[in-house]
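TEACHING EXERCISE
Course module: macromolecular assemblies
Task: Read the component lines below, then compare them to the predicted structure of the full complex.
Student: A.B.
Group: 4
Components provided:
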Amino acid sequence: AQSVSQHNHHVILSEAASLELGCNYSYGGTVNLFWYVQYPGQHLQLLLKYFSGDPLVKGIKGFEAEFIKSKFSFNLRKPSVQWSDTAEYFCAVTPTDNTGFQKLVFGTGTRLLVSP
Amino acid sequence: GAVVSQHPSRVICKSGTSVKIECRSLDFQATTMFWYRQFPKQSLMLMATSNEGSKATYEQGVEKDKFLINHASLTLSTLTVTSAHPEDSSFYICSARGEAGELFFGEGSRLTVL
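Instructor-supplied answer key:
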């Protein structure tokens, strides 16, 4: 079945460690790709998105993600995490379809805990 | 940034009653809104796409008569869970598509059916 996979369900890091969260999707054709973050007690917020162009996308708060089409991947990275990055991170994909509506399909999420 | 507000944030109801959840775009007009459901430790599952002035488009497996969606204005969509049962207990999240196509999410509404 077509899906979005986030392989790491829980990640625990110390401050200043580097972060990479995996995201793979199984849709063919053109896709738009997103990473959302949900801080404790808050709503989902957009971190970054990829529509076209440079496959290395820079987002807010020092996050970046790289689209590798051949691997159907859109991994999220941050060189040095902070305690305030503790949150749940969702990868999402909008596959194009013939209805014109681009439905956002979410991965299962990765819960990141950064210890001070 | 654009704000989407959901109300109520938490609701507890008895089995068999109906519950209405509102989703409002506070500073922009949204012709399209989406309703998601999130089970514990699982992903957000799209339930339906709500279009202003027309019928909602439901995803496969979502009961139209149970989850009534109304999008009567450009700033308000409502989800009514009719004859709620304990298995309907979940976290419901709405999102609204802004004028530039970006999605903005509400805070979510946690429904508990006793």
